[in-house]
Amino acid sequence: MKKLILATAIAASFVTTVARAEDAKPDNEFSFNAAVVSDYRYRGLTQTRFDPALQVGADYTHNPTGLYAGTWLTNIKWIKDAGALSGTDTKGNVEWDIYGGKRGDIGGGFTYDVGGLYYYYPGNTLANSGVKNANTFELYGQVGYGPGYFKYSQSLTNLFGAVNSKYSQYYDLGANIETFYGIMLGLHVGHQNVRGNPSQVSYTDWKVGLSKTFDDLAGITLGVAYVGTDLKDGVATTPASDGLKNVGKNGVVFSLSKTF
């Protein structure tokens, strides 16, 4: 009996050690991601004139400190559309994001995430009343608790080429809730305040989405979301050649993505 108890204890200790080893993360962690979306929406607004987008990215995390850095790229159309609406020929069909920050636990179940994000549009020629281009830099801070979070972002440059819009603010409240069969429910509401511009340019956006990762399909994640804003027709539109569509109109977005 004593030998049986001893053997059981040793086996249990071995299993626990293996489990802990499997759960432990490396000090330096790299990951890559790729996605195809039916429409690239950012803060509720289409960036691709309601057309699909191909997106790729890479991330690095130093787990002991919570420091991280990453980059992400996607195709866009909004810069060319902005030029067409103003009667000018503008260039810029790629968005390249570069970001870095620090995340971790505050205590009591709360988490934090602070950092900076630079939106770079290679070769863009968006120019409006002295604004050189659409490139934008924001600082952000986020507090999370359980599945919920609140994030605040502030631009230290003009916001995506808007005149005199330095220090514009974005408020983001949301939650990612695991429901049944591994399906995630994503809820979001945000408000973009565009400083120095007419009040109708500022707006509220929202999203309700469902997603599921399929391990038997090489870890591919499928998603669908209903996205919209309170922007009125005519405030922000696509070019006349495309029928002057409201870029913030309500719509459904499908996505297929993978992290590896």
Automatic annotation (TrEMBL):
InterPro entries per UniProt: CHP02001
UniProt KW keywords: Signal
Protein name stated in the entry: TorF family putative porin
Cleaved signal peptide residues: 1-21
NCBIfam families: gcw_chp
Keyword Signal: yes
Pfam families xrefs: Gcw_chp
Keyword Signal: yes
